[in-house]
Amino acid sequence: MDTTNNGTLVSYRPDIMVMDCTLRDGGLVNNFYFTDEFVKDLYKANVKAGVDYMEFGYKASKEIFNVGDFGKWKFCDEEAIRGIVGENNTDLKISVMTDVGRTDFKKDIIDRKDSVIDLVRTACYIHQIPAAIEMAEDAKQKGYETSINIMAVSKVNDEDLDNGLELIAKSGGVDTIYLVDSFGSFYPEQIERLAEKYTAIAKASGKNVGIHSHNNQQLAFANTITAMKQGVSILDATVSGMGRGAGNCFLESLLGFLRNPKYNLVPIMDFVEKHILKLKDDGVVWGYDIPYLLTGILNSHPSTAIKFLKEKRTDYSKLYQELLDIE
Q1: Within 171-249, where are the H helices?
Q2: pLDDT at residue 1, rounded to an integer
Q3: In sequence order, what are the residues at sequence separation of 6 or more whose Cβ sits closer than 8 angstroms to the Cβ of residue 171?
Q4: 150 by DSSP, 3-state: which?
């Protein structure tokens, strides 16, 4: 990866790829209960928009999670994905997310030759990196593209992060290392420094770097394009920012910013008009709000803010003091 090829505001980097995570991160908002029409239309919109990857959801363990409590995109069975994409005779690649300790990867990740899935991503915390590498190497041996997404790095000290990145860099089973702003706490200056670290390690081992941002401080888009400027090449986004808590980088903003003529914003806007507005009218809630701002500022998990909003509280100053007590 040549980080000197950063492009300009009127050019584009051909190595940039866009990942739509609406079903996976957005599924955390509604327990993955999307209609087939929603999913099919999102798939078609992504194909028309030139999006490079579409993440369908998680490969969660049915031994750990009750199937009756979630929509099918919590589990992403092969037949469920094929019911939407058929043989996926398009340029769009299909992704799923696995979780350390929450995925029966040896059983549920079948051989790539029997699957329509192209990319298997593995999410982990810093102390789970050895287990994540085992999962990624298993997926790689089965024929998939792979990534490891280290979560909550805003809570990790530099030495541990360096050691973790070096472990991943040494693995031949990992194609992409993801910089993840789990709590929406990073500012562009911090993303710039971290992206430099990630891309230097990745370049030395022939790997790519991706970015997954959260919008607690309304910086997900800014942080995404800051990382891109530093050589990060795989950019996560969701339609209208749909995702857990404050949500993510808006796919609309990202496609509007990128200059590559293969990307087309119109199909995504049409999808928003048909489906996202209805979701909001039906009471599905996500996006920036003061409680998420506070957890972002304090580098805290958004669960406290999610609970605060579900209880319809508006005593923001009291919440701030509660968060300070937790910290």
Answers
A1: 188-204, 220-229
A2: 35
A3: 133, 136, 137
A4: strand
pTM value surpassing 0.90? yes
Judge whether 146 and 133 are in contact, CB under 8 Å: no
Which burial class, exposed, middle or buried, applies to 322 when counting CB atoms under 10 A from its CB (0-12, 13-18, 19+)? Answer: middle
Specify the number of domains making up the chain.
2
Structure confidence at residue 4 (pLDDT): 43
95, β-bridge pairs:
55, 119
Check whether residue 230 and residue 303 sit in a common domain: no
- CA 146/CA 268 separation, integer angstroms: 26
For the chain, give the number of residues. 327
Residue 314: give the domain boundaries: 290-326
Residue reference for tokens 């209960």: 33
Please, what sign has the CA dihedral across residues 237, 242, 245, 249? positive
Domain for residue 114, yes or no? yes
User: CA-based angle 217:220:223, to the nearest 5?
Assistant: 105
Does some domain include residue 5? Answer: no
Run of H or E residues at 23? helix 22-30
Residue 197 and residue 60 share a domain: yes
Q: Report, as ranges of residue numbers, the positions in the chain whose pLDDT lies below 70.
A: 1-7, 9
Question: What pLDDT does 6 receive?
Answer: 62
The secondary structure of residue 206, as a DSSP letter, is: T
| Ramachandran quadrant class, 7 (left: phi over 0; alpha: psi -120 to 50; beta: rest) | left
Q: What is 46-94 written as a DSSP string? A: HHHHT-SEEEEEE---TTTS-GGGS-GGGT--HHHHHHHHTT--SSPEE
d(CA 309, CA 9): 38
Closest CA to 51 of 276, 265, 309, 284: 265
pLDDT of residue 321: 97
